[in-house]
Design goal:
Layout: E1 3-9, H1 22-29, E2 33-39, E3 52-53, E4 63-64, H2 66-77, E5 84-93, H3 96-103, E6 107-112, H4 120-125, E7 129-132, H5 142-153, E8 186-187, E9 190-191, H6 201-219, H7 221-233
Parallel strand pairs: 1-2, 1-6, 5-6, 5-7
Antiparallel strand pairs: 3-4, 8-9
Helix pairs in contact: 3-5
This protein binds S-adenosyl-L-homocysteine.
């Protein structure tokens, strides 16, 4: 089964973007995942291919029309069981857990908003799941879709050279990852922590776990609280 992403956008040329490079790009060439970017404008009915209109109730900006977007969604999702996502700052924040869940499926359909956003009726009628990539506002859903797909593709089987490297990372164990070091042994008078060059694998694992905990306590106490909650339940 090949993971297949279909993206609905006013800017299909933004895809596959950076996902055409590096490991994701090689995996795309090998057919380990596939993507198509569909122009929403192709589903407009008028000569000018209009997709937006002024907000009901007044106010700034433009809103994507529900009828055109619905036609586009229905066209790509006919008989399709893939989840339908809408990139949106109002959505549920994307997590590594959600990334893993999506990667375990057969793909996604992603709607990229623009302007002020999307008419609420198409979100409701097509049961779009709103997903946010963080508490800030982008000018369009495309970079958010690329970010989500990047995170999903890198955990697909066989995409990263070393399949194990995915499981020891930030968030995977509910904690942030420990610091990394490499050669040279001394950089501007700073040495690699001695334990890492000791060859004592038990001590190294212990050091890494302690550093990981310390960093998470300092930077993301919210993650620790969440991990504790899960541990208490289990
Ligand atoms: N007026 C809207 C913002 C629209 S931004 C509001 O205040 O909620 C235009 C489009 O960019 C959105 O429709 C969405 O698709 C995308 N976008 C902006 N910020 C995003 C974020 N943090 N995560 C995901 N998508 C985002």
């Amino acid at each position: 089964m090949t993971f297949r992403a279909t993206v609905l956008t006013l800017y299909p040329d933004m895809f596959p973007g950076h996902l055409g490079q590096s490991l994701a790009g090689k995996a795309l060439e090998r057919g380990q995942w596939a993507m198509d970017a569909v122009q929403i404008r192709d589903f407009a009915a008028d000569r000018h291919r209009t997709v937006d209109d002024t907000p009901a109730g007044g106010g700034a900006g433009m809103v994507l029309r529900p009828d055109i977007l619905a036609r586009a969604i229905d066209h790509v999702s006919d008989g399709d069981t893939r989840p339908k996502l809408l990139m949106s700052p109002r959505g549920k924040p994307l997590t590594q857990e959600k990334v893993r869940e999506l990667a375990a499926g057969d793909g996604v359909i992603i709607v990229c908003g623009r302007f002020e956003g999307v008419d609420q009726r198409v979100i409701d009628s097509r049961e779009l799941e709103e997903v946010s990539i963080g508490d800030y506002v982008l000018s369009g859903g495309e970079p958010a879709a690329l970010t989500l797909l990047d995170a999903v593709i890198r955990v697909l089987p066989g995409v990263m050279g070393n399949d194990l490297s995915g499981v020891h990372e930030s968030f995977e164990g509910g904690l942030l990852e420990h610091p990394h070091y490499t050669k040279p042994q001394i950089f501007e008078d700073l040495e690699i922590p001695a334990v890492l060059t000791s060859g004592n694998h038990g001590a190294i694992a212990k050091w890494r776990a302690a550093e990981s905990l310390k960093l998470t306590e300092e930077r993301r106490p919210d993650l620790l609280a969440a991990a504790r909650k899960i541990a208490d339940k289990g």
